[in-house]
Structure formats: structure tokens, C-alpha cells
């Protein structure tokens, strides 16, 4: 657990990139500031004289050797309970006849009693794996299918890796330093991606690392005479080309020949996790689609578009998503989920898009029986986000007026430069060429001027007649400030109507769990007549689908159906933080949405989450929100900046 918390601390610092106090980090991890200091010492010790975490008057931040520390090899973990557990599992998986407990304890330099405790942890690890740990006198052995044993190895590799990213060092630690072709997996991956592209496939780089991990496991198992059994029936025609490619690359790079069982298994993984057909015509795409899948996806997408007022009900989007869901069905049958290293960032940065993806995943679970896991929801969110990005309305651009006194075609050249460099951020709707324009009559979002205005203003940006890179940076920064200011202004106006002093709790019980906290906060809104008990239970069901901890400090539990009599938010403050999902939070905002306020859904989600994505803002609100009035004052102050 200590190693996991150290890694979590370092991941937080690397993702944030800013200074953070020991107290703030302790709140996020649910430990004491003293523990944070000891974690920093341990992290720096991993680098052998380097700096994983910098210390200073402002606290801590990620150092130049942070990535190296996060991927530190066995020397950093040697002798730890996690290291022994993984070593023990590898030994059990590597020996069909089992291991001698006393000999293994001696090899690991621990007592037999310690090893017995480790074996008990192995039994805990085997839950849901279709594997059992048998014991006969001093011999312990694993029993189960080869597929189940490989899944366990995959689980160990994922445990070694950070956020599902492809990490060769972690893969070598899982398989053992003597695993076959360890140095060759980098070139193998590059050649596999190149040849799949040459065959006309789009390659999913987020999924290919996971498949290469399975290929590494297969190669290692084959060298131990643990190949997959030959499958019953003929290999599907679509798999044959990919199977031949994998076998050829395995022989070239790894010196291993794949049998028929491994060829079919790995080809199926590639075709369902790594590739998508290259730009098919709509009719061609449908020939590869199960009509039941297409129909289910079409129904769910149309329902999501109506529920969330998002523009996703387009034919091309439905077909692409249906192809993805069909692959997802194949993965679910094999319990071979595809990891997504962007899951956490997608959830925290685009909570509204992620919420739409959760809705789609939930509906597909009902209609097709697909289990829901966060990494797979994140892939659906990437499809949704891609569609919304394509359909983004042009009126989201800020308008601008250029003030440039006329001299030959100078103003025309400047407008051309602005359009070329800033056309995706602003739209120039007017050009003033007078040296004394009526500044008060200019009503655009921005004023880009080559002359000094009579008075400075937030929307006025001084630029040069010949646009420079620094001018572009200043205009982009001003546009970002205006957009953020408008969003937060709307948020403030809406949020003030959603809070009530009777729906505020300070001091949430960490032992209550997510369901207990949801019932506590939901009960406050039930007593107000805003929702009923069924809404609270549906909010708990939604929480079980995917954690609503959208940032490292904020959870926003809610039901997906908007059945409240009015939109209302119950706030709970936790100081210190409480466990929520896989992390910890300090603020829980139970949101009851009404059908009449459907359009407020996106505002509340994305912009409310944005406020609580900044650690300093969270700490300010948590520390000072001693009662409801203080909470609202601090929230408004943070929004106003």
C-alpha cells in the first residue's frame, strides 16, 4: 500500500505540474503531512541521487527525475510485500508441478510464516480468475486453464504499469528478467503498427501496448511449453492475415513460433482492441456489423442526444460507434478489457462528455449485456468527444474588432495575419481605420488595437501593425480569460439559485462509504420535496456504474434521469478527505436535476467541476466553509477570481 501511495503522490505532482503543500497532498491521499514527507524521501531514494520530487517554501512539485522514479525497477521494490507477492505468483505460474513453500521462503529470505501470509494474499488475488491455489503438504500449486493463468499475468502487468500506459520496464518486471525477447518488444511494436497500417487499418496506439503485453506473455508461456490449445473449428477468414503477420513478427523479433491456438487468440485481440477498418463506406461498414448491435447503438445514441441535448445522432458517428461496440462485445466475451491511459484525464477535464458516455454504456449494458468498466467508458467518451468537436458551432468564436489607422493596405495585411494565426479562436467582424475611433461604440468581445486606447480594458489587446508571436499569445490569453469569465459568470448566476442552507453538511463520515454519503445528502433534498427516495437509490446505482469523483477533490453523485421537481444541490464538506471510488474527495455535491432545467446540466457539470479542479481553490473553500454562508461566500469569491 505504501508503494501505491508513493506512486499516487508522484502521479498527482506530475499531472498538476505546480507546487503543492504537504497538507494539501495529505488531504488528497488521506494520510498525514508527515507521511507525505516520508513518501517524498522514498521517491527520491528510487532515483539513485536524482530528484523525483523537489522541495521548497511552497511545498513540493515533480522534479526532473519523476518519470524515472515512477518506473523504478525491482531494486526500488526489492523485499517489499508487493514485490514478494508478484515474485510468488510468477513462481506459481511458471511451475506446473507447484512450488515448495520452505524452499521458496528460503530463496526470498523470509520466514515460512511470512510466506504463508503471502500465499493467503495470493488466494485473495485469485478471486474471479477461475484459478485456485491448491496445497498438498509443503507443495503449493495453481490450478486452472492456460487462459486464466495468462489473465492473471496480465493483471500483474497492469498493476506494475501507471494508468495503463505501455511500459517495457514494468512488463519485464512482471515476466521476469529472463523472459524471452524482452529487448525486442519495442521493435516488435513498431513493426506491428507499421504493417497493420499498411494493411489498411487504423491503429489505436492506446490499445496496442496492451496487446503487445499479451504477445509478450504468450511468447514467455510458449518457451515454458505452455502454449494455448488448438481451437475447435476453423480460424475465421478475417483473422488469417493478422495471424500470419503476428507469427512472422514473433519469429523475427522473439524467436518464437506461435501455434494455431496462440495465433487465433492474439489475432482476435488485435482485431478487437488495436485496429479499426480504414475509412469504410457506410454500406461496406454495415456488412461487418451485427444488425442487432447497430440497432441497439442507434437507439441509445438517439436517446442520449435527446436526454443531454448533444449533437451526436449522426449516421457516421453511429456506424463508427457500432463498430467499436461490436469489438467491445468480443472483448467482453473473453473478459479482455482494453486499458485506456486517458481515463482519469477525460473524466476530470470533460465530465459532461464522460457522463454522456456513462449513459450510453449503461443503456448498452441493458440492451446487449456488455459489462461496464471505466476504461471502456473512456473509449466511448473519446467517440462522443470527437463527434461534438466536429459539430461545434461557429458562434462559440469570440468576435473582434481591429483598430489600425489606415496607411496603404496595412490594415488589410494585419487582418489577414489575424485570420491566419487566430482564426480558430476569434472572428474579426470589423476594422476601424480612423486614428480617433468611437471606442464606446465598439461592442465586440475583443478589440485588437495598434494604437493606445483612451483607457485600458480586459477586452482590449495592444498589438503591433505586423503581428508577432507574442501578440498572438496575448490575444489567445485574453480570449481564454473572457471565455472563462463568461462561463463562471453564468455558473455563479445559476449556482446561487441551486443551493439552500438546509442542504449543507460539514463533517462527512468516512466510514459511511459512497452509498451512505449519497443517502445522507439525498435525504436532505427528499425532506425538501425536491426528489423522492427512488432518485437517491438511482444515484447510488449510477455511482456503481462509474465513480463520480471527477477531480481529486470533488464527487458529483446524481441520478441519470432528470426527475427532480427543481434542480438543487446538496453540499457535503469532508475535512479530512474521505474515500471515494479509487481516490479520495473533500467535497461531495449531490445534484438533483429536473427536466425543466435540462440545459443547466452541462453548465453545472463542466463548470462546477472546473472550479474544483484547482487545488488551491478547493483548500480555500474546505478550510473556510465552516457553515453554509461561509461556503457560498468562498465559492463566489473563487468564481470571481
UniProtKB/TrEMBL annotation:
Domain of life, per lineage: Bacteria
This protein's UniProt keywords: Repeat
Record has Repeat as a keyword: yes
InterPro entries xrefs: BglG_antiterminators, PRD, PRD_sf, PTrfase/Anion_transptr, PTS_EIIA_type-2_dom, WH-like_DNA-bd_sf
Residues annotated as signal peptide: none
Gene Ontology biological-process entries: regulation of DNA-templated transcription
UniProt keyword Repeat, yes or no: yes
Gene3D superfamilies listed in its UniProt record: Mannitol-specific EII, Chain A, PRD domain, Winged helix-like DNA-binding domain superfamily/Winged helix DNA-binding domain
Record domain PRD: where: 288-394
PTS EIIA type-2 domain residues: 497-641
Record protein name field: PRD domain-containing protein
Origin species: Microbacterium lushaniae
Amino acid at each position: 500500500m505504501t508503494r501505491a501511495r508513493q506512486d499516487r503522490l508522484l502521479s498527482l505532482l506530475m499531472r498538476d505540474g505546480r507546487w503543492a503543500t504537504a497538507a494539501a497532498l495529505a488531504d488528497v491521499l488521506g494520510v498525514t503531512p508527515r507521511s507525505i514527507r516520508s513518501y517524498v524521501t522514498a521517491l527520491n531514494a528510487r532515483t539513485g541521487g536524482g530528484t523525483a520530487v523537489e522541495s521548497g517554501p511552497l511545498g513540493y512539485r515533480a522534479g526532473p527525475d519523476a518519470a524515472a522514479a515512477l518506473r523504478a525497477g525491482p531494486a526500488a521494490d526489492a523485499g517489499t510485500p508487493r514485490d514478494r507477492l508478484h515474485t510468488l505468483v510468477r513462481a506459481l505460474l511458471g511451475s506446473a508441478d507447484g512450488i515448495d513453500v520452505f524452499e521458496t521462503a528460503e530463496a526470498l529470505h523470509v520466514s515460512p510464516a511470512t510466506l504463508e501470509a503471502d500465499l493467503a494474499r495470493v488466494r485473495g488475488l485469485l478471486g474471479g480468475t477461475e484459478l485456485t491455489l491448491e496445497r498438498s503438504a509443503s507443495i503449493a500449486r495453481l490450478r486452472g486453464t492456460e487462459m486464466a493463468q495468462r489473465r492473471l499475468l496480465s493483471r500483474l502487468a497492469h498493476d506494475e504499469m501507471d494508468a495503463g500506459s505501455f511500459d517495457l520496464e514494468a512488463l519485464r518486471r512482471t515476466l521476469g528478467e529472463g523472459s524471452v525477447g524482452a529487448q525486442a518488444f519495442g521493435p516488435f511494436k513498431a513493426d506491428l503498427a507499421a504493417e497493420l497500417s499498411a494493411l489498411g487499418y487504423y491503429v489505436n496506439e492506446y490499445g496496442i501496448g496492451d496487446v503487445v503485453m499479451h504477445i509478450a506473455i504468450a511468447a514467455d508461456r510458449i518457451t515454458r511449453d505452455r502454449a494455448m490449445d488448438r481451437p475447435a473449428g476453423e480460424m475465421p477468414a478475417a483473422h488469417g492475415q493478422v495471424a500470419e503477420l503476428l507469427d512472422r513478427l514473433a519469429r523475427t523479433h522473439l524467436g518464437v513460433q506461435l501455434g494455431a491456438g496462440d495465433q487465433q487468440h492474439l489475432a482476435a485481440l488485435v482485431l478487437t482492441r488495436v485496429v479499426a477498418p480504414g475509412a469504410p463506406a457506410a454500406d461496406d461498414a454495415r456488412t461487418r456489423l451485427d444488425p442487432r448491435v447497430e440497432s441497439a447503438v442507434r437507439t441509445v445514441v438517439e436517446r442520449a442526444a435527446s436526454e443531454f441535448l448533444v449533437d451526436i445522432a449522426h449516421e457516421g458517428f453511429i456506424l463508427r460507434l457500432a463498430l467499436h461496440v461490436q469489438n467491445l462485445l468480443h472483448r467482453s466475451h473473453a473478459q479482455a478489457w482494453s486499458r485506456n491511459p486517458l481515463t482519469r484525464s477525460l473524466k476530470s477535464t470533460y465530465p459532461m462528455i464522460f457522463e454522456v458516455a456513462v449513459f450510453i454504456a449503461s443503456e448498452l449494458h441493458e440492451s446487449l449485456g456488455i459489462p461496464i468498466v471505466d476504461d471502456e467508458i473512456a473509449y466511448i467518451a473519446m467517440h462522443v468527444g470527437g463527434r461534438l468537436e466536429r459539430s461545434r458551432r461557429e458562434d462559440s468564436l469570440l468576435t473582434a474588432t481591429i483598430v489600425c489607422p489606415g496607411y496603404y493596405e496595412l490594415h488589410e495585411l494585419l487582418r489577414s495575419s489575424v485570420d491566419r494565426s487566430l482564426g480558430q479562436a476569434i472572428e474579426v467582424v470589423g476594422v476601424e481605420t480612423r486614428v480617433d475611433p468611437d471606442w464606446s461604440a465598439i461592442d465586440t468581445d475583443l478589440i485588437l488595437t495598434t494604437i493606445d486606447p483612451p483607457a485600458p480594458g480586459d477586452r482590449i489587446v495592444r498589438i503591433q501593425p505586423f503581428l508577432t508571436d507574442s501578440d498572438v499569445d496575448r490575444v489567445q490569453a485574453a480570449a481564454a480569460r473572457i471565455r472563462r469569465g463568461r462561463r463562471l459568470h453564468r455558473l455563479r448566476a445559476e449556482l446561487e439559485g441551486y443551493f439552500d442552507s438546509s442542504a449543507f453538511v460539514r463533517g462527512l463520515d468516512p466510514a459511511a462509504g459512497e452509498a451512505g454519503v449519497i443517502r445522507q445528502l439525498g435525504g436532505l433534498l427528499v425532506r425538501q420535496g425536491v426528489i423522492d427516495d427512488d432518485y437517491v437509490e438511482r444515484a447510488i446505482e449510477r455511482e456503481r456504474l462509474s465513480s463520480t469523483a471527477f477531480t481529486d477533490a470533488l464527487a458529483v453523485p446524481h441520478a441519470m434521469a432528470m426527475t427532480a421537481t427543481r434542480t438543487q444541490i446538496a453540499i457535503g464538506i469532508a475535512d479530512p478527505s474521505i474515500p471515494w471510488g479509487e481516490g479520495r474527495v473533500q467535497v461531495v455535491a449531490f445534484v438533483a436535476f429536473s427536466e425543466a432545467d435540462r440545459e443547466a446540466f452541462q453548465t453545472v457539470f463542466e463548470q462546477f467541476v472546473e472550479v474544483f479542479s484547482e487545488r488551491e481553490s478547493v483548500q480555500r473553500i474546505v478550510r473556510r466553509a465552516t457553515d453554509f454562508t461561509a461556503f457560498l461566500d468562498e465559492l463566489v469569491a473563487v468564481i470571481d477570481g
